[in-house]
Amino acid sequence: MKTKTAPMGWNSWDCYGAGVTEEIVRKNGEYMAKHLKKYGYDIITVDIQWSSLVATGHAYTPFDDLCMDGYSRLIPAENRFPSSAGGKGFKPLADYIHSLGLKFGIHIMRGIPRRAAHAHTPILGTGVTADKIANYDSTCFWNSDMYGVKPEAPGAREYYESIFALYAQWGVDFIKIDDICRELPRFEEELILISDCLKNCGRDIIFSLSPGPAVLEKSELYKQVADMWRITDDFWDRWDLLYNMFERCEKWSVHTGAGNWPDCDMLPVGALNQDEDPDCRTCFTKDEQITMMNLWCIFRSPLIIGGELTKTDDFTLSLLTNENVLRMHSLSRHAHQVWRRKVKGVECALWTAICAGGGQYAGVFNLGEESVECEIPLGDLELEGSKDMLELWSNEASRAQDKIMVNIRPHASAAFLITE
Amino acid sequence: MKTKTAPMGWNSWDCYGAGVTEEIVRKNGEYMAKHLKKYGYDIITVDIQWSSLVATGHAYTPFDDLCMDGYSRLIPAENRFPSSAGGKGFKPLADYIHSLGLKFGIHIMRGIPRRAAHAHTPILGTGVTADKIANYDSTCFWNSDMYGVKPEAPGAREYYESIFALYAQWGVDFIKIDDICRELPRFEEELILISDCLKNCGRDIIFSLSPGPAVLEKSELYKQVADMWRITDDFWDRWDLLYNMFERCEKWSVHTGAGNWPDCDMLPVGALNQDEDPDCRTCFTKDEQITMMNLWCIFRSPLIIGGELTKTDDFTLSLLTNENVLRMHSLSRHAHQVWRRKVKGVECALWTAICAGGGQYAGVFNLGEESVECEIPLGDLELEGSKDMLELWSNEASRAQDKIMVNIRPHASAAFLITE
Amino acid sequence: MKTKTAPMGWNSWDCYGAGVTEEIVRKNGEYMAKHLKKYGYDIITVDIQWSSLVATGHAYTPFDDLCMDGYSRLIPAENRFPSSAGGKGFKPLADYIHSLGLKFGIHIMRGIPRRAAHAHTPILGTGVTADKIANYDSTCFWNSDMYGVKPEAPGAREYYESIFALYAQWGVDFIKIDDICRELPRFEEELILISDCLKNCGRDIIFSLSPGPAVLEKSELYKQVADMWRITDDFWDRWDLLYNMFERCEKWSVHTGAGNWPDCDMLPVGALNQDEDPDCRTCFTKDEQITMMNLWCIFRSPLIIGGELTKTDDFTLSLLTNENVLRMHSLSRHAHQVWRRKVKGVECALWTAICAGGGQYAGVFNLGEESVECEIPLGDLELEGSKDMLELWSNEASRAQDKIMVNIRPHASAAFLITE
Amino acid sequence: MKTKTAPMGWNSWDCYGAGVTEEIVRKNGEYMAKHLKKYGYDIITVDIQWSSLVATGHAYTPFDDLCMDGYSRLIPAENRFPSSAGGKGFKPLADYIHSLGLKFGIHIMRGIPRRAAHAHTPILGTGVTADKIANYDSTCFWNSDMYGVKPEAPGAREYYESIFALYAQWGVDFIKIDDICRELPRFEEELILISDCLKNCGRDIIFSLSPGPAVLEKSELYKQVADMWRITDDFWDRWDLLYNMFERCEKWSVHTGAGNWPDCDMLPVGALNQDEDPDCRTCFTKDEQITMMNLWCIFRSPLIIGGELTKTDDFTLSLLTNENVLRMHSLSRHAHQVWRRKVKGVECALWTAICAGGGQYAGVFNLGEESVECEIPLGDLELEGSKDMLELWSNEASRAQDKIMVNIRPHASAAFLITE
Question: Taking Cα atoms as reference points, which of A114, A66, A367 lies closest to residue A243?
Fold first, then answer.
């Protein structure tokens, strides 16, 4: 379901791992509705292993006996999602999220539960059992829940149709599928089958692929099967990961837009890892967080908040709701890196994009370890003469003559809207 | 258990796949005792999936519910091995094979039954269950029975000790382990653990690794953990596979002997694929079978017969029991390929070996598609002058002066013992 | 010498190989001054081996005794460039080209003449001889004229300074250097040395690197040392080469502009290979030539005409001087491929770019072998609603509602300027 | 010219590099005739650049103007080889070496002098000049003397025939050709052409290929074109190089014998690098030198002495003339490594070979850094019971019962002849 702008929302992984509960989800939804919805954030997603009775955090239990219905389909664990009792699945929770004016998302794994294959349980609408469509050698190296499905096996299509029919009936608006994005061409046929089944499920659902790094040579395929796809392995609040994202974004920049959203992963801001420590907060400095937002927004990555929303502090809220920057996220076009080089011995990068509302964006990033006074000829942006400049975070207006002068701290950045 | 000469015996795979039964095994044992034992053949091996209630031939049933005891250990399927009823396992059958003066062998797969991991069944002598030692991402790409074991997990060593204790108690003399030989260094630690446990099980057991091709760089490791190891993927009665074996043997020749037996796989002779067609016979020509025997014997590969023994025809029996050739199998030393080149436009290979009983062997192989008159200078064997020659198959004696002259048909070969 | 728009001109290789003469150069200059200069074409370049007394066409003579001055520097062959007699070099010819209001360009090879190394001739301003700076193992695999120079050797910098001083004195405005562009990182240090010497020669000279394909990972280096660099091996009038250029352009698109000109190579149009056949004309169809121009211009490749100008026919002239298209070449910004996929079974590509003069360009290319009716949602260009459309070649104006409809022949294309 | 045993002799490189003179050669020949010839050493070889007027040691002069005759053929530099004056070439020196009862060898480079190509000098018996057969892109990365020859060019065969005719006329018995051995398949066709021409030159000449490492996959080719070929890059008196030789020998062992001599390179013993320091002596310890001899001799490498013979000290002479060890060099058959593993924590290797005179050799090598008491079961040699043992260096006889016990210092070794 192609969207005009990159999806924005919240996901439970960064703060709760596999152990999120219904109550937490509801509270985060309520916060979003009250504080973030007006800025465009509108998706609440329950991440991995909502079928587990025992999951409590970021670690997985091998050979966990996940909850299934009678047709080899995973269903929410009632002890963690009480409203799902009585076979109602996620419908009551989705209804509640919808009542807040938000969208409801879930995480799924590629494949069919290993439990189902070993128990020979049926596939809905077929005479086939799970062991007939499960591929015993198609495993995920970091999680034991599922076997991949043999795309050509009788019953395979019906299985995937049956799960998406269930999710549609629940009212799901967003699906993040895991163990598939970077595994091309290995699981390409299975991905195409899944995408086909989802498109025909009768409900508009945003489709998000994980984990990255996505395979650049397959960019056209991603565009055809999905709405967003991860260009990185799990992103966390570490500078080296943010530093590396610049190269990833450089390579994927020409594939962004028109409903296609290469995905830099969740924003690890605010209160993270709540399963381990309620006092845990992001390790990123404020400068790094602004650098992250500048990159995510000029590049137009999806903006999926990773922190526990109810613990959002003032800085984090201001970070996530800066209107100049969110306008760049919405109006940036044709973004790309102009150069990346040493400036006075300090590694810097210059990005630019057209603003669909008029003017041109420039992002200046200090990727090095010392402050630097950058002097950027307007010619590097293919501009010349005298221009009006607005720095998006400080809201400072200035006039540039032939060049931009900006002093940037290490790991910090500046973003400008340049107009006549 | 290092042996002075390469193991000789019979294996059920080539004729029955996974579907052999106790009765068949007994009858093949009886035939061996009567007709082959005096030539050195003395091992009767039950190949893969003797725990399956449903296996009938060369195909595997995915997610087959294999028979287990209460400690996650596979046991024979009673419907196929009736004497195992009442928890007696293979002991009665092994006893019978022993009573014939023969050794009893079984096939096992690396790892622990997937069933056990998913059912969380116990490991003997530990407080641990199978799911704790099973590696959910360690699968065999062609069979769904097992998960690999995490070598460092508490309970892993006890599991392997427990299965070898069981096999020793049954009276097993030979174990062919599958899904491990070519998978180095991936499963190297697991292989070392398994070998350690086997060596300490209290019974001398010949240890055979499958499937190939073994990893040449790991030759020293194979010598330390096993008695024989497959240097090829499954070998069948096709010329291209036999042709390719020459290069495999060339590379492994210096690693043969002193209890180390790089293994060219079963001899697909006589009545094969009996599960599919009782009339099936080897597709090899007689010349090709002799070429195979010449190569296997000068190289000293294990000689494991693949055909249903009770249907052995006269030619096959003569092939398997030629005393000159079996003497070469026993006495060949320092075998290696001297050259492989076009002789008058026909691809030929010359092998040589010292005879521990005196003299020197020479094998001349026509690997091409036309007959060729080979003239081989004795100098190629680092001999000179006048020599006595005995061709091993024809028993023809002759006198060579400076060179060997021999006319060889396509795919055929000659083997000589050369003495003063 | 960074230029605001991509260089435009003519080069002698496609029509004369290594065998061009002064008279031909003059006549092509005269044609350009009269017919092409007003459209922006203003560079006349003498390609490879102008020092050869014997070169007559596209083949090279191994170990050709090229003309040198007393300082190991190549000079024009007087029999082919009479005005160079008396040690005047290319100055008289450059003066003439300048008198036409045009720029004068020459081709050079990386390195120092092999003749000089073997004759131990001096380097200007040093006590060093050529053999001391020549790298005997740094050869060009397709031409025997030169040895590479050891960048760190005493005298190496002086040699390169001495040749650029000579070219500056001649009045050279454009240098195409060969045997270096794709050979990174092998010759990276030599390239940096050459670029340094050129920048300090006292004259603004456009610097062009050959042959391609350039190394994508070295994009930042190319930007720092050169003005244009070949992204392809020699391009000729064959569809497969044009077809492949789409992928090359896709990868290099974000590196185009702001004085950096990834180069798709000469336009093989009009009268080619005049050394072999005066009647030779391009093998491209008209549709293919328009497709080539659309790609070169939206991508902003340099436009260097390959055909003998004095034989330019009406179609070719119209192709090279279409004002809409040349405006796109000048005003295209942020060009990139949107997608490349099967449309109704026919492989198509969609490119877009911002027009610096207002509006947005779209190029629709049929890369397949059948005609196709393309229906392109404006959303693919991140536009919506109703738009004015101008097709650049036909000059047809139309109004698009939500989508562009265009029928395209095989190998053909359409280019639109889209405005409100 | 296939030889029954591996060639033995002396080569000037290790002690004089490219700078040896006639006088030195004569004196080394005289020493060999007097002290070494009776042990089998009988080849005196003048190594690289005997055509250079200026060479004095191990460094090369780039673009050196080597002495040539009128047919593009290199000839000795008269200032260094006075007897060659008047166009007599090496004939007088070869005659003298022959008069001592020895063979005369020379080094050559693959190809034709670059000087000849650039000067367009003629090829004997053809109308062709050197530039027509020289391949301008076939260079040697460490020496600038030659261009490779295009094997298919008219005149190429005649050139190689012409140089071998000259060498045959001089009385050359041994040719070491450089820049070709490891460069397969790149120069394979040129190698085959050279070998053909040499075989047809009318004189029996031993043909030696340099430098290594030779390409194992091309073993059959080496056997057909040459007598010996280097399996290593230049070998010097450093333990790491000797250590690495064990793996090289392991791989090549089955290709040794019957006139084929994989070559471990010169023995860097005694007085080396005399061009730099007359007092220079080998850096190998005595143990290492014995280890080297044990490996070279059981493997049957050519034995080419690298030190200045006239300065041979007593130990070195005893090393080179041990009759037990030279007998192993002559009579070793089917040598190969049995194992290489940690023995009590110390890396050791066991080699064995058959003795053509009766019995079996065993070499025990300590490749580690601590002394070790090795206990080697006779079974590792496929022997059993009680055996007579003779240690070759100490001449100590003993009786082994089931095993060999030997204490070995680091880098040291023992070699035994085992008989009944």
Answer: A367
Q: By CA distance, what is B64's nearest residue in A?
A: A118
Q: What is the ipTM of this complex?
A: 0.92
Q: What angle do CA D149, D154, D155 make, to 5 degrees?
A: 65
Question: Could you tell me where the beta strands, DSSP code E, fall in A132-226?
Answer: 134-135, 146-149, 174-178, 206-209
- Alpha-carbon distance of C110 to C116, in angstroms, equals 14
Q: Hey, are the CB atoms on B118 and A115 less than 8 Å from each other?
A: yes
Cis peptide bond prior to D211, omega within 30° of 0: yes
Between the CA of residue A399 and those of A390, A403, B368, what are the distances in Å? Answer: 9, 10, 84
Cα D346 to Cα D343: distance, rounded to the nearest angstrom = 5
How far apart (Å, rounded) are the C-alpha atoms in residues D258 and B301? 26
Tokens at A75, concatenated: 């269903």
The C-alpha atoms of residue D343 and residue D316 are separated, in whole angstroms, by: 30
A114–B118 CB contact, under 8 Å:
yes
Quick: pLDDT tens for A306-341: 999 999 999 999 999 999 999 999 999 999 999 999
Amino acid at D31: Y
Is the pLDDT reported for residue D1 higher than 80? no
Please report residues of A whose CB lies closer than 8 A to that of B139: 136-137, 139
Structure tokens at D386: 């009680």
Closest-approach residue (CA) in chain A for C382: A258
Report pTM.
0.93
CB C365 within 8 A of CB C294: yes
Mean pLDDT computed over D167-178:
98
Is B285 within 8 Å of B257 (Cβ atoms)? Answer: no
Which of D110, D73, D103 has the alpha carbon at shortest distance from D205?
D103
Question: Predicted confidence band at B1 (pLDDT cuts at 50, 70, 90)?
Answer: confident
**Under a CB-based contact definition with an 8 Å cutoff, are residues A175 and A208 in contact?**
yes
B390 touching D, CB under 8 A? Answer: no
Phi, psi of A113 (to 5 degrees): -55, 135
DSSP C230: E
Domains and CATH numbers, chain D: 8-321 (3.20.20.70), 335-419 (2.60.40.1180)
Q: What percent of chain D has pLDDT over 70?
A: 100
Find the helix or strand (DSSP H, E) in which D135 lies: strand D134-135
CA distance B242 to chain A (A): 30
What average pLDDT does range D295-314 have in this prediction?
A: 98
Statement: residue C393 has pLDDT above 90: yes
Which spans in B260-411 are helix H?
A: 286-299, 314-320, 323-331
Q: Read off the pLDDT of residues B223-272 as tens digits, 9 standing for 90 and up.
A: 999 999 999 999 999 999 999 999 999 999 999 999 999 999 999 999 99
CB atoms within 10 A of CB B271: 22
**Interchain contact D381–B (C-beta under 8 A):** yes
pLDDT in tens, B357-396: 999 999 999 999 999 999 999 999 999 999 999 999 999 9
CA B63: distance to chain centroid? 27
Q: Are the CB atoms for A333 and A299 separated by under 8 Å? A: no
Choose the closest CB to D118 out of C114, C137, C140: C114
- Nearest-angstrom CA–CA distance, D295 and D302: 11
Chains B and A touch (3+ CB pairs under 8 A): yes
Whether C382 sits inside 8 A of A356 (CB atoms) is yes
Is the torsion defined by CA of C168, C173, C179, C185 positive or negative? positive
**Checking DSSP bridges between strand B8-11 and strand B303-305, what pairing results, if any?**
parallel
Is A139 in Cβ contact with B63 (below 8 Å)? no
Which residues of chain A from 43 to 72 reach within 8 Å of chain B, CB to CB? 62-63
Output Rg (C-alpha) for chain A, integer angstroms: 22
Portion 62-121 of A in contact with B at CB < 8 A: 62-63, 114-115, 117-118, 120
